[in-house]
Each structure stands twice: as structure tokens, then as C-alpha cells.
Amino acid sequence: MRRTFAFLGSILLASSFLEAQEAAGEKAAAPEGAEALAKKLSNPIADLVSIPFQFNWQQGYGVNDDLQFVLNVQPVVPFHLTKNLNMIARFIVPYISQPEISPGVGPVSGLGTITYSTFFSPVGSGGLTWGIGPVFGLPMTSDPLLGGGQWLVGPTAVGLYQTGGWTIGALVNQQFSIADTGNQDLPTFSQAFIQPFFAYTNKHAVTFTLQSQSTYNWEGDPDQRWTVPINFLVSKLTRLGPFPFSVQAGGGYYAAKPDVGPDWRLQLAFILLLPSAK
Asked: What does DSSP say about strands 243-256 and 226-240: parallel, antiparallel, or unpaired?
């Protein structure tokens, strides 16, 4: 119960901090174009370069209900292949600090598996945006506690609709193991990722997002396959020198998880934006 109250208090504190920043930052509306740029951040395949640094604290991990820390560096780079087709490259590079997962197993820290996705997205009309392509898992360690040491491949897709200040969509992928990094005789890996998201951006370039980053492990025991966090996030677009800059804070509760999975999480992200020149 104390953890639940602590989690709710952290969310309210993050929200209050962002609202105070907005009120103190000149009681006027955000600069022209900021709202549209903030709205683009809700689109995983928007036509702008972004460099997010996402800090995650996940409590209740392992047999002793300890704290796991994950730093994700997630650059997104669009390429204009033709006037009607974009290619968007997305990376997720995780650094993981993980407590003891079972007696005598852990703690451990280091780089995890890099996820690289390529989306081919037609230049749309109206509010509908979609893209499809391949996703790859690039092993950066042979430690199975951090990434499994396997090469992964599979399909990925994203679709979303934007109208007014609203963004509604989902990103999905499926990864399969195709080889390991040595003679480790590792078990087969097959995992689905499902990320539905609902976001609203107001005229002050503040965005409120409800989303999940769920995974389904096809190879796990039937009652250990789902990991389903429900996350609420608040972000504010500001500036870092000449560049647009977004600060995001929030957290989530795990509605479903394996026995050793976390109970709740806090998230803080800093996102540098480099809008593409047309």
C-alpha cells in the first residue's frame, strides 16, 4: 500500500512540476509552432530528428523486490526517399542495472540488446499516418540476464490518427531469434511488443499521454508470458539554446507481469529535437 501511495504521489509531483514550469514561463501561450512540434512528438515516425534520453526506475524487480534501472537512448532519424515515401530509422540502446533476479543470479549491469527498426511510411494526407518495415535485435552482450546474446529479426508496424490535439495509435513488432553470439545453445526467443497510445496536446505545448509498452513471451510458461504496464506521462516542449527540447515525466503500474517482474515504474525523459529541413 505504501508503494501505491508513493507511486501516486510521484505522478502528482511530476505533473505539478510541469504545470508550475508552464505558469512561470510567461503566462502567455507557447511560441508559434510549438504546439505542432509537441504534437509531432506523439508520432513515433514523425518527420523530425529526435534524440531522447529516457530514464526508467522499476520497483519490485527480482526475488527481493529490488529496484531495476534502465537508461534508453532512442534516436529517431527520418530519410526522404522520394516525395511520396519516407524511411524512418529508430534505435533503442539500453543500459541496464539489474538486481538479483533469483538467489545467486545477479546483480549485473551493462548494455542490453539494441533494437533497430526501419519504417517505410508514405507521405500521408489528412491525419492518418502509418509505416511498416523490419525490426532487428542486435546483441551487445552474451549475458542472458541483460539481453540473451541472440540475433533477432521480425516485422514491425505503426499506425496513428491525429485530429485537433488528439493522437491515437499503436506500434507493434514481433522478434524471433535466428542465431546466437557463440556456442551457447540458448533457448529459442520469440516475443511480441504492443504499444497502444492516446495523447492530447494543448496550446501551451503540454502533452498528456496514456500508453502501454506490453510484451508477450511466446516461449514462457503460460502464466508468465505477459508484461503489461499502464503508463501516464506528461511532457512540456521548451528550448535548449536554439533547439526545441522536451521534458517528460510520469510513471506506471504493472497490470500483469512475471513473478520476478516489477510492480511499478517511474520515467523521466529529455528529448532534443532537430526538425528536418524541407
From this structure: antiparallel
Helix (H) or strand (E) holding 24: helix 2-24
CA distance 161 to 158: 11
How far apart (Å, rounded) are the C-alpha atoms in residues 151 and 199?
33
16, 19, 24, 25: CA torsion to nearest 10 = 140
Q: Going from the N-terminus, what domains does the chain have, and what CATH number goes with each?
A: 2-275 (2.40.160.40)
Taking only the tens place, the pLDDT of each residue in 62-100 is 888 899 999 999 999 999 999 999 999 999 999 999 888
Q: Report yes or no: 272 and 240 within 8 Å, Cβ to Cβ.
A: yes
DSSP string, 125-175: STTEEEEEEEEEEE---S-TTTTTTEEEEEEEEEEEEEETTEEEEEEEEEE
Q: Smallest Cα–Cα separation from 175: which of 147, 196, 197?
A: 147
The residue whose grid cell reads 489528412 is: 126
Contact 74, 93 (CB under 8 A): yes
pLDDT of 247-258, one tens digit each? 999 999 999 999
Side chain identity, residue 246: S
Q: DSSP class of residue 17?
A: H
CA distance 211 to 209: 6
